[in-house]
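Protein Record: Sequence and Backbone Structure Tokens
======================================================
Scope: a single protein chain, as residues and as a discrete description of its fold.
Tokens: labelled as protein backbone structure tokens, with as many entries as the chain has residues.
Position: the record begins directly beneath this header, with no further notes in between.
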Amino acid sequence: MKSDKLEERKLSWRRNDFERRLGFDGGRYTKVGSVCSCLLALVFSVAFYVILLFTPEIYVKSIFTDRGWTPYAVVFLGFWSFFILFIKTRKIRLQREPLNYPILPDEPDFTLTVDTVDEVANTISKRAESPKDFLVYRRVVQTLANIRNFGQVSDVDAIFRTQAEQDENVSQTSYALVNGFLWAIPILGFIGTVMGLSDAIGHFTGVLTASSDVSEITPALKDVTSGLSTAFDTTFVALAVALALQLFSTFVHKAEEELLDECSEFCTVNIVTKFRVRERVEPLVEGASNES
């Protein structure tokens, strides 16, 4: 019974990762898989337009439904970007959980040496179902596994710095898809603008060619103004979506950078400052011992 309770208290990435809970292969650490976020975006995009079908004919509805194909693409990419960032926030929260638990014995004079490595490693294995699934535990476990090869404290600090740089590079790479969408969404708005202006100019040229009578030209200008509406409304929608997502991405990126900084501080406080190199005893030379 006690073992079952202990198992429930264990940190588990496999059970608590947002993507895995939905039945998908979760991206490691704070990385987000494309399949889960894409499907969620598709479902919510369809739901969004189904809701618009039952919405009264208002200006907001016409912006998304009567301005060509670009608003549909903007909505889909907007939802896709949103869910990548949303899932990232859940993963960041999960990766932050190990920072709340101590890994060292509650002894003020405790020092980390070759003899006490197993004690720390056992504490981590009891706390997490699979320690290497968590950023901070992965750093610690890899360092503890090689601690016998370190000759001084600076070696431990150096390997932690290397791991921190690698994690930071992986973090930057994980935003590649979102950054691409944030570039593409305004471009789609500008494409809609060009299409709308082209349509308006085409109608206007046709009106002038067909007739020179002002009374006939005035009604025909309605088609010209509708083209201008398409031009400006698509740009407005794309820029508004891109702005909201850029702000969201900034906050998520900041939270992930803070997580990486906290992981580095955790490793410094719990490992680097506690590590002590055991003095090596030089073996006695047999000839020297006989002479003495």
About this structure: The chain has one domain: 2-272.
